[in-house]
Amino acid sequence: MKRVAILGPGLLGGSIALALRGSPGVEVGMWARRAEAVEEARKLSVADLVSERLEVVVQDADTVVLCMPVGAMAGVVSKILPFLKPDALVTDVGSVKQPVTQALAPVLQGRALFVGSHPMAGSEKAGLIHARADLFRGATCIVTPEPNETASVAVSRATEFWESLGSRVRLLSPARHDEVCALISHVPHLAAAALVNTVAQQLPSAFDFFGPGFRDTTRVAGGLPQMWTEILSENRGEVLKGLRALISQLEVAAGALENLSTVGEKQSQGCSLSYQKLSAFLSAAKDCRDTLRVG
Amino acid sequence: MKRVAILGPGLLGGSIALALRGSPGVEVGMWARRAEAVEEARKLSVADLVSERLEVVVQDADTVVLCMPVGAMAGVVSKILPFLKPDALVTDVGSVKQPVTQALAPVLQGRALFVGSHPMAGSEKAGLIHARADLFRGATCIVTPEPNETASVAVSRATEFWESLGSRVRLLSPARHDEVCALISHVPHLAAAALVNTVAQQLPSAFDFFGPGFRDTTRVAGGLPQMWTEILSENRGEVLKGLRALISQLEVAAGALENLSTVGEKQSQGCSLSYQKLSAFLSAAKDCRDTLRVG
Which of A170, A206, A243 comes nearest B250 by C-beta? Predict the structure, then answer.
């Protein structure tokens, strides 16, 4: 019998539990901090065992998955240290990997196997109530070994775990992971929120006229502010770098539009250098986006 | 028999023709500039009459719809002036309304009825080949009379025309229309293109890891650069104003992240003013977006 301990009963923890439910030879334990959360998890029968006592859930576990906010992980790990089996695999589902790895890897060194994970699944809907057994099916999970540090057996066991939930696993160092996610997720999130705030500030009545373009461009702005503030703040170095690059790109477009205004109508638009610059800006984006394999 | 003349065989012109095809008592004529476009429109039987001669299509028309790029409209209108019935309604489908109205209203004054229209339908797929009879069904069409200038009969006839295609009509002045569209469409388009260009510039390999969030946030960047350069450039005053406001919003977020970095780890994040500022930024956007009726 293999035992999996899921610490934290949110969307991700709940979905892992549901995905494992009924797997032959697997027993799932779930820990929740609040008594009401324990009640809810029991009512929904998401795991074989649900408890608010960490030691009950963690002892004898072969795999421990940290599914709480990134900032709470170090505190929980210090509490479970005495109960961990020495060959247990500890991993997590945090969206930012450098701070997590820096906080947990030294503490777990010699006490258990550790490697970080980031299952790229989830949604703007949070909480156990939205958990789904198929949340990870077909999703990419990034596993983040530290070069020359992380034991290869930790990587292979984490890979096996996520593949058993139907995910495709890819490896990145924690630092590269955070750089990638800043660019494809954290900065776009800020851009979506900034677009909504811009309309609200400039002309709220314009919201009455939005169409599918605005709807899609700003969809992620509906995400949980509490969770996203933590993610952005934990990854602030990379997010800032990406945000500065985005602002520079917008300044390129603004510069071209400003020149078009001052050059005025005299020059034919087709010949104007600024017109060509704006067109090149849009063409580069289109060419690049057209190559993405979109679902 | 009512006659509708559609000038320009693109996605919008073609879709209007298909929507009207077979309507009892309506005869549809289509003009295309290029011989190959005339051939294609005839092959697809989109209209009762297809010609590259403007006078053939426009004479006897009760409604004339300009479906070419905004920059080409004035030239076409000057050519059709001699053939217009004095009670013909002339309208257009351009995405920017102040330049169109300023260029066309004075010329058509006393020669025909004119009011601008902006059917908010379309897609990143252009051309007659993507035209659909139901493109306008359920869509909003903004009709843009000039206050104290446009004849009310022009407004009522344009309204009736778009409603006959299944659209909901709303009225805005040309100036207000351009302000609204800058905020909900033109600036978001630039933001989407800038996000793609940022990733391409900073770390192209990050594209390999994009998920549904990035896909949706950047979808509109796949739009036709030629068309969008014209739209942005025609509406450059309002787009610049909105773009500056967007950059200010992004600077607010960047400022908060910068403070978090310099304040450092000593202060608890929960208490930090910058943390609260970032959280308020995201909460404002979420609260606002959650109120939008999204399809």
Answer: A243
pTM of structure? 0.90
Q: Which of the residue ranges A54-68, A72-86, A122-136, A155-169 would you say has the lowest mean pLDDT?
A: A122-136
> Which residue matches tokens 């139907």?
A166
Closest-approach residue (CA) in chain B for A246: B198
Alpha helices in chain B (DSSP H): 11-20, 35-43, 54-58, 73-80, 98-108, 152-164, 174-181, 187-202, 212-217, 225-234, 236-263, 273-290
Nearest CA to CA, how far is B199 from chain A (Å)? 6
Any CB–CB contact under 8 A between A224 and chain B? yes
- Report CA A268 to chain centroid distance, whole Å: 48
Between CA B251 and CA B24 the distance in angstroms is 57
What's the pLDDT tens digit per position in B219-258? 999 999 999 999 999 999 999 999 999 999 999 999 999 9
Burial of B124 (0-12, 13-18, 19+ CB in 10 A): middle
Q: Residues 145-184, chain A: which have Cβ within 8 Å of B?
A: 170, 179-181, 183-184
Euclidean distance between the first and final Cα of chain A, in Å? 38
Which structure tokens are listed for A116? 């970080």
d(CA A100, CA A113): 14
When pLDDT is cut at 50, 70 and 90, the band that residue A270 belongs to is: very low
Q: What is the mean pLDDT of residues A229-253?
A: 97
Is residue A197 pLDDT above 60, yes or no? yes
B282: pLDDT strictly greater than 70: yes
Does the beta-carbon distance from A198 to B295 stay under 8 Å? no
Q: Do B191 and A196 touch (CB under 8 A)?
A: no
From chain A, pick out residues whose CB is under 8 angstroms from the CB of B237.
Answer: 261
Domain B2-172 is of which CATH architecture? 3-Layer(aba) Sandwich (3.40)
- Domains of chain B: which residue ranges? 2-172, 177-290
Whether the predicted interface score ipTM is above 0.85:
yes
A292 or B99: whose pLDDT is higher?
A: B99
Q: Are B63 and B161 in contact (CB under 8 A)?
A: yes
Any idea what DSSP says for residue A48? S
Q: Which residue has the higher pLDDT, A273 or B107?
A: B107
pLDDT at site B266: 47
List the single best residue of A198, A220, A241, A243 to mutate versus B (max B Cβ within 10 A).
A198
Task: Spell out which residues of chain B touch residue A95, defining contact as CB-CB under 8 Å.
Answer: none
pLDDT of A194 over the 50 cut: yes
The answer to whether residue A262 neighbours chain B at the CB level (below 8 Å) is: no
The matching CATH number, chosen from 3.40.1000.70, 1.10.357.10, 1.10.10.10, 1.10.3660.10, for A177-290 is 1.10.3660.10
